[in-house]
Amino acid sequence: AQKITQTQPGMFVQEKEAVTLDCTYDTSDPSYGLFWYKQPSSGEMIFLIYQGSYDQQNATEGRYSLNFQKARKSANLVISASQLGDSAMYFCAMRRSGGSNYKLTFGKGTLLTVNP
Amino acid sequence: GAVVSQHPSRVICKSGTSVKIECRSLDFQATTMFWYRQFPKQSLMLMATSNEGSKATYEQGVEKDKFLINHASLTLSTLTVTSAHPEDSSFYICSPGTLNSYEQYFGPGTRLTVT
User: Fold this and answer.
1) Mean pLDDT for chain A?
2) Is residue B2 scored above 80 in pLDDT?
3) What CA–CA distance (Å, rounded) separates B107 from B93?
4) pLDDT tens digits, one per residue of A66-111
5) In terms of DSSP bridges, do strands B67-70 and B76-81 run parallel, antiparallel, or are they unpaired?
6) Exposed site from A17, A56, B25, B111, fewest CB < 10 Å?
7) How far is Cα B52 from Cα B78, in angstroms, rounded to an integer?
């Protein structure tokens, strides 16, 4: 079984500052993938970043980076230079490796508010 | 990324009626389709998984006779909410899957309101 824990129901950050959204996970799968999605008020799920469990380097995508600490089973999302448009719900998710035909397990999410 | 469409985007129906939601993967052959439900201020919860041409597998607590899933082709899956009740009001999201890609995309979602 897989479990994702996001302990921050809500976070506030000042525009142009960096923010870290926490995610810890638990799984019995030897190989897995970790995802972060952004969900604005429109409801669409926007893929942000992916980290494979055997990737040696932390994933980065523009202003998003994933701080992957395998031994601690954490996969925190770092957003640099926050923008007002970053205000949204953020979900951490995981899936066993092997392709997108395996289901994703989601955390409860963190609501990020960026203040001007 | 892959283009996934859902129709309708919003639907309001009366209690007791049935509603069909279509999910299409427009540039992607979905051997698997995941259907999620999301209640307000909550996370996505997997309802069922279907593989093209076979019966869907439902998660615990999801009534298979109430939520009918058809995955007849690699580009189309449908979710029918039968005899809808107000407690079925939710945001329904599909997500196609394939062995050949790690990326997981989602449809834009369907907001169902049952009055």
Assistant:
1) 95
2) no
3) 6
4) 999 999 999 999 999 999 999 999 999 999 887 778 889 999 999 9
5) antiparallel
6) A56
7) 11
Confidence at residue B1, expressed as pLDDT on a 0 to 100 scale: 63
Cis peptide before B8 (omega within 30 of 0): yes
A100–B96: do the CB atoms touch at under 8 Å? yes
- Output the six-digit token pair for A54: 């055997």
Residue of A nearest to B90 (CA): A43
**Ordered strands of the B57-58 beta sheet:** B10-13, B110-114, B90-97, B32-38, B45-51, B57-58
Q: Which residues of B touch A45 (CB under 8 A)?
A: 44, 93, 95, 106, 109
Q: Do B102 and A100 touch (CB under 8 A)?
A: yes
Ranges assigned E (strand) in chain B? 4-7, 10-13, 19-25, 32-38, 45-51, 57-58, 67-70, 76-81, 90-97, 110-114
CB-closest option in A44, A97, A103 to B34: A103
Which tens digit of pLDDT belongs to each residue from B40-97? Answer: 999 999 999 998 888 899 999 999 999 999 998 889 999 999 999 999 999 999 999 8
Contact yes or no for B81/B89 (Cβ under 8 A) = no
Q: Hey, what are A56's tokens? A: 């040696």
Q: For chain B, list residues whose CB is within 8 angstroms of any CB belonging to chain A.
A: 1, 31-32, 34, 38, 42-46, 49, 51, 91, 93, 95-106, 108-109, 111
